[in-house]
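Dear Dr. H.,

I hope your travels went smoothly. While you were away I took the liberty of generating a structure for the chain from your last submission, since the lab meeting agenda had it listed for discussion. I wanted you to have the full record in hand beforehand rather than looking at slides cold. The sequence, exactly as received, is reproduced here:
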Amino acid sequence: MRVFITGGTGLVGSAVTAELLSHGHSVLALVRSDKSANAVQQAGAEPVRGSLSDLDVIRTASKQADGVIHLAFSNDFSSAEALASAVAEETAALKAIAQQLTNTNRPLVTVSGTPWVPDRTATESDPVPTEGPVGGRGKTVTEILGLANLRASAVRLPRTVHNQGQGGFAGLLTNIARSNGVSGYPGDGEQRWPAVHALDAAVLFRLALERAEPGTAWHAVDDEGDKVKDIAAVIGRRLGVEVKSVPAESFGPLGQIFGLDQPASSQHTRQALGWEPTHPKLLKDLELIQP
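The corresponding predicted structure, in token form, is as follows:
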């Protein structure tokens, strides 16, 4: 299968590209720079120059592909306005992709976060939030999955997708700790975040591309929920900085999300698609953080 990927050079995207190539697929990857284009070529894929806002480029590449995996997002969490802009950009791109794949039976695999459900572990049957700081992403994915005559599915990524101590919410905590010398966590730190290794998530994206039925959602979850204070403790020890509770406002527009207890299960995903994570869990992987 010839697969077009947006976000193909990121932490998750590079793993997905390698996974697809190792299973006989060819890859077209959207890239914005010469550096990214070189990385894609060295991996064995074909670069497509453009950004998520270049809708004509996205339409053309989607039309040329046998399937599409969408991963790109600006990840600018500096303000509510920046997040809203990123969501609007992604929405326009996803709709452009969907237009090219409708009535073709060619698969589209998109991405969202795992949902949070008060007082219990979230499952694949729970809807993603459509309110809050990133609720716009949930609205868009829900709309895409509901489109008629479109073979669309969604892989829901947990709060931390990690590889060698980097990535996701845990990666943001690490970056903040490096910057201000404190490994902080909101509240009492008892809230739980799900996690998965990027290489395991990549396998699920491939399985969804190859097997998923239209309108389905899948959970790329290995750790159902690690306590945030335990995550912060490893980060603090590895960086040699103090570990303590800090106000949720310290984390900007993500503070509201950081404070939630949001464990998630992948039981249905494992049973239905035969997905089984094999790489290190989050707390072990964080031991690779460099001081």
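Two observations you may find useful: The CA atoms of residues 181 and 241 lie 6 Å apart. DSSP finds eleven helices and twelve strands in the chain.

With kind regards,
E. W.
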